[in-house]
Amino acid sequence: TFSGSFSSPLMSSSVVNQDPFENRERQNIGRISGKRKNPDSAGSAKPGKSKKKSKKVKKPTLKTPLNPSLISNIINGYPPNPITEEQRDIIVDYLANEINRMKLGSVSPCFDGYFLHSGVLKVKCLDIQSKDWLAQKIKGYKPWDSADLQIVDQNFLGYRVKISICIPGPVDDPIKVIRRIQWQNEGIDTSDWRLVKFTKVNCGYLFIIIIGERSWSQIVHRKKLCVNFSQVGFSVLKC
Predict the structure, then answer these.
(1) Given CB 3.0 to 4.6 Å as the disulfide criterion, which of 37, 53, 168, 208 pairs with 197?
(2) What are the CA-CA distances from residue 27 to residues 16, 22, 30, 36 (Å)?
(3) Which domains does the chain show, CATH number per domain?
(4) What share of the chain in percent tops pLDDT 90?
C-alpha cells in the first residue's frame, strides 16, 4: 500500500493573507516603490580626474598641400617692386635650365605650375625638398640690374605703401582730387587710397597717402601722374 499524504492546493501550511485584495495590492506596490538603488553600487565612477587623450600631431606627407613659394623683387628691403611678365619668363627659363643641369641620379624638384599675381611670381611646389631647392636657386640670382629676388612669406605681401604727391592748387576738396587721379590715369584704381595728411606747401598742396599692394603695382612703373592740368611725380615714404 502506498502511504503518504497529499496537500490540497487550497490548504497549505503557509499563512494566507486575509486582507482584502485592494489592500494587498497597495502593500506590494509600496514594497516595490520603497526599494532604492544604492548610489555607491557598481557602475558608479571611481574618484579621481579622468585622463585626457593627447592629440597626435600629424606629420606632413607628400599629400599634404603646400602654400606656393612667392618670388618677389625687393626695393631696399621694402616695398616689393612688381615683377613683369617679361621678367617672369626670364626667371622661369633660368629655373628650367637649372633643372636640366642637374646630375643623373639626383632627385629633381617637382612643381605643379606657376602664375604671376600682383607682381609676385607664385610657384607651386609638390614637396618640401622642391621648396628648399627653389629658395636656394633664387638666392643670389640677379637677372637684371635692379633685381633683388627673394622668397617671401605671404604675410609680407600684406604691405602698405606711403607716398607723397605735391599737386598745384587750387584744391578745394582733396578727396575729389584723389578720385580725379583715377579718372585721368587709365589703369589706376584709387578706391583704396587713404589720405593721412593734406597741407599747403610752396609747390601747392602736399598729399600724404597710404595705398595697398594692388594700387602700388599700378603706379610703380609710372614716372608721373596726370592731375588736374598738370603732371606730377610721387615719392615713397617710410610707413
Answers:
(1) 208
(2) 15, 9, 5, 16
(3) 68-152 (3.30.70.330), 161-236 (3.30.70)
(4) 33
Residue 48 confidence class, pLDDT cut points 50, 70, 90: low
User: CA nearest 209: which of 239, 159, 176, 164?
Assistant: 164
Q: Are 166 and 232 in contact (CB under 8 A)?
A: yes
Question: How far is residue 21's CA from residue 27's CA, in Å, rounded to a whole number?
Answer: 10
Looking at residue 216, what is its pLDDT? 85
For 40, the grid coordinates are 555607491
Listed residue (163, 144, 162) closest to 224, CA to CA: 163
For 110-124, what is each residue's pLDDT tens digit?
A: 999 999 887 889 999
Give alpha helix (H) positions in the chain: 21-33, 85-100, 128-138, 174-184, 213-219
First to last CA, the chain: 125
Spatial CB neighbours of 146, under 8 Å, sequence gap ≥ 6? 73, 75, 81
Give the confidence band of 178 by pLDDT, cuts at 50, 70, 90. very high
Please tell me the predicted confidence (pLDDT) of residue 1.
36
The CA-based angle 163-167-171, given to 5 degrees, is 120
- Name which of 159, 209, 236 is nearest 227 in CA terms: 209
Residue 190, exposed/middle/buried by CB under 10 A (0-12, 13-18, 19+)? buried
Burial class of 90 by CB neighbour count within 10 A (0 to 12, 13 to 18, 19+): middle
* Contact predicate 219/176, CB 8 Å: no
In the block, which residue shows the cell 610721387?
Answer: 234
